[in-house]
Design a protein that fits this description.
The complex is a heterodimer of chains A (309) and B (373). A six-stranded mixed sheet of chain A has the order 6-7-8-3-9-10, with helices on both faces. A four-stranded antiparallel sheet of chain A has the order 2-1-4-5, covered by helices on one side. A four-stranded antiparallel sheet of chain A has the order 12-13-11-14, with helices on one face. Chain A has eleven helices and 14 strands. By secondary structure, chain A is α/β, with parallel strands linked by helices. In chain A, helix 8 crosses helix 11. The longest helix of chain A has 16 residues, at 166-181. Chain A has two domains: 6-218, P-loop containing nucleotide triphosphate hydrolases (Rossmann fold); 227-287, Alpha-Beta Plaits (2-Layer Sandwich). Chain B is mainly alpha-helical and 373 residues long. Chain B starts with a helix and ends in a 6-residue tail after the last helix. The chains are: A alpha/beta (309), B mainly alpha (373).
Chain lengths: 309, 373
């Protein structure tokens, strides 16, 4: 593996007395989709904007594509090679999708073909529609296209699917996966657990300005997710009563019987006990999710709006 | 350079496609010019109406002295004798009562008595009677003209030659009309509102919606963004001036000119007011508050800078206030070059405008956020 695309060491960002980013360190490797997962106000956007050279840092060292963000010349070189989709992307509202993309393209020395971008993002029919007349999903597509207009090596996507309906969200995920396919590094911030789990090669969970955990989804689940669970669908009182003799931690939920386990032997014991009594059951195995990992680490869930709950 | 061009094109197009932008930048000033031109534009071509009752009995004769007197009154151009003249049988008191109006006041009437011609030709004294309302401010002026014309006849009859003469020249080489006064004034005033209200709200809206921030994440530099915006305002200003001048020429046969001086002044003015707009937008975060502040600054400035009336007729404390308003210098300068042809005064005003332009553009650049805190 070569040099890290993003390298953050002991980054701190203060606004007066408020510490928005509190001594975080991480690296992003070339070609990966890296997700910053956390609730609103955790410091995600602040960190991203420091990486995008839009905000100065208070202390620490940050390099992006090998350039120091605190250095003016470094900033110039970084801006040429990154693509940015900000939270709530907006363009000039009375210009069309095409005109806006042409405007962004004109900011770079060697831009991608706007025509091709319009085709890739399926904007052909809407290319002559004014930006303010586009739906939320189409605006977001223009935003992603604008983020790619300079053929960037690193793409920042800040909350790319917030406010989009599930169908458009899934379509956007496909676009993001496509970026990895093109060898681009993607830095994603999100408060959607599912989005991070679906897309990210690695996830950093950020809580109150600190990184609570970092790793691949599998690593995070393995380390922090805890026990897996057998679900006996509609097992009822008989199944619950039988298992209760062997396991203290068995639970009932809406007629389902849930048995958390850590060893395979526990599964054998449970199945034998049930078959001795002649109880026929339908069962499913459930692995812990990123959401449960986050709950365990942060002590709260995140609502659909991104708030801590 | 290509980035500036792209910003300029995009901003201009975005502005021109806005209905309210177009309305306030072009249609509104045009409406003002039409309204002002129609109300005040033609007063100089007319004269002050005077009703005359001729009781002299020589009607029909070309050598009739009373008719020569009436002709002489008309030829002053200051007085227009209402035609047809009142018949000798008309009761003047009743006529005045029936022709009084709330706005127009009483009509001015001159009565030429019977025997006027006969008496004058014999060198006998005769009095004409002039009746005007005390409330009529122009009454004495018309009275003076009548008396002047009468004196002319007296001189001729006495065979005297006037010793002191008066030659009256217009204050500029070109014949001015009232509408000429409004073209530079309105152009200046609306360039000011375009910058101080229009650009302020647009720039703060760009900032609120994140457009500025998104562009700042590209290699675009802050000065390129500002120059693009200022250029766009300058071109809009030149367009506005062109529209106003064309309209004034076509509708009112105005004498305003668009020379190199004027074009330079327009560009400096556009830079100045877009600098003020950028400064306000940078200082006030909330777009509504920014546009409110723009209005609060633009409207008093518009009325106190000699756009609609000369600064000289305002009370002296307002005159000194007008002297610190940038628009005063800009509209004065435009007037100097567009209608008066007074280029040395135009240059002085242009210097003030360009100095202010530099200050405000620098200030605007300083407060425009390109990197957050």
């Amino acid at each position: 593996m070569g040099e890290s695309t993003v390298k953050v060491q002991r980054l701190v960002k203060r606004y007066g007395d408020l510490v928005a980013v509190n001594d975080i360190s991480f690296e992003v490797q070339p070609g990966e989709i890296f997700a910053f997962l956390g609730p609103n106000g955790a410091g995600k956007t602040t960190t991203v904007e420091i990486l995008e050279c839009l905000r100065p840092l208070t202390s620490g060292e940050v390099t992006v594509l090998g350039e120091n963000v605190a250095d003016a010349r470094g900033t110039e070189r970084i801006k040429k090679r990154i693509g940015v989709l900000p939270q709530d992307f907006n363009a000039l509202r009375r210009l069309t999708a095409r005109e806006n993309l042409e405007l962004f393209a004109a900011m770079y020395d060697n831009p991608a073909s706007v025509k091709e971008l319009i085709e890739v993002f399926g904007l052909q029919e809407k290319a002559k529609v004014r930006f303010d007349a586009l739906s939320g999903g189409l605006k977001q597509r223009v935003g992603v296209a604008a983020a790619l207009v300079n053929n960037p090596d690193l793409v920042f996507l800040d909350e790319p699917t917030t406010g989009l309906d599930p169908e458009v969200r899934r379509a956007t995920w496909e676009v993001i996966r496509g970026l990895r396919g093109k060898g681009k590094t993607v830095f994603l911030t999100t408060h959607y657990m599912e989005e991070a789990q679906e897309l990210a090669d690695r996830i950093a969970m950020i809580v109150k300005g600190k990184i609570a955990a970092i790793g691949t989804p599998g690593e995070l689940i393995k380390t922090y997710g805890g026990e897996r669970t057998i679900v006996f669908t509609k097992g009822g009182d008989a199944v619950f009563g039988t298992l209760r003799r062997y396991f203290d931690n068995v639970a009932a939920n809406n007629g389902d019987v849930l048995l958390p386990y850590t060893q395979t032997r526990d599964v054998e014991v449970a199945l034998n006990a049930l078959s001795e009594r002649g109880l026929k059951v339908e069962m499913a195995l459930r692995s812990p999710t990123i959401e449960e990992v986050f709950l365990k680490l942060a002590g709260f869930r995140i609502t659909a709006e991104g708030e801590a709950k | 350079m290509s980035r500036i061009t792209a910003i300029f094109k995009a901003i201009t197009l975005n502005w021109l496609r806005s209905r309210s932008g177009l309305f306030f930048s072009f249609l509104f000033p045009v409406m003002f010019l039409l309204v002002f031109g129609s109300i005040f534009g033609n007063t100089n071509s007319g004269g002050y109406t005077l009703y005359v009752q001729n009781k002299d009995a020589c009607l029909g004769s070309p050598t009739c002295l009373s008719l020569i007197f009436i002709g002489a009154l008309n030829s002053t151009k200051v007085v227009v004798v209402n035609s047809p003249i009142l018949a000798p049988s008309v009761n003047v008191t009743t006529f005045i009562q029936s022709h009084s109006s709330f706005f127009g006041g009483n009509p001015r009437v001159l009565v030429i008595p019977s025997g006027f011609g006969a008496n004058v030709s014999r060198g006998l004294p005769v009095n004409v009677t002039y009746i005007s309302s005390p409330a009529d401010q122009l009454g004495p002026v018309v009275g003076g003209v009548i008396s002047d014309v009468a004196n002319g006849i007296n001189f001729q009859l006495a065979g005297a030659r006037p010793v002191v003469g008066l030659s009256h020249e217009s204050s500029s080489a070109r014949a001015l009309k009232n509408v000429d006064f409004y073209v530079p004034g309105l152009t200046a005033a609306f360039m000011m509102t375009n910058g101080v209200i229009g650009l302020t709200s647009i720039a703060s809206e760009f900032r609120r919606s994140g457009v500025t921030k998104r562009l700042s994440a590209t290699p675009l530099r802050k000065y390129e963004w500002i120059v693009g915006n200022v250029l766009s305002q300058a071109v809009l200003a030149l367009l506005l001036a062109l529209v106003m001048i064309t309209l004034a020429k076509v509708a009112y046969q105005s004498n305003v000119t668009l020379d190199g001086y004027t074009i330079a002044a327009l560009v400096f003015g556009a830079i100045l007011f877009s600098g003020i707009g950028m400064t306000l937008a940078g200082l006030v975060k909330d777009p509504e508050a920014a546009s409110g502040l723009g209005n609060a600054i633009a409207f008093p400035m518009m009325f106190l800078s000699g756009t609609y009336w000369p600064v000289d007729i305002m009370p002296s404390f307002l005159q000194s206030f007008a002297r610190v308003l940038p628009l005063t210098y800009f509209s004065d300068g435009l007037r100097d070059s567009m209608i008066l042809g007074n280029y040395s005064a135009a240059l002085t005003n242009m210097l003030v405008v360009s100095a202010l332009a530099v200050i405000f553009v620098l200030l605007g650049a300083k407060v425009t956020v390109w990197k957050e805190k």
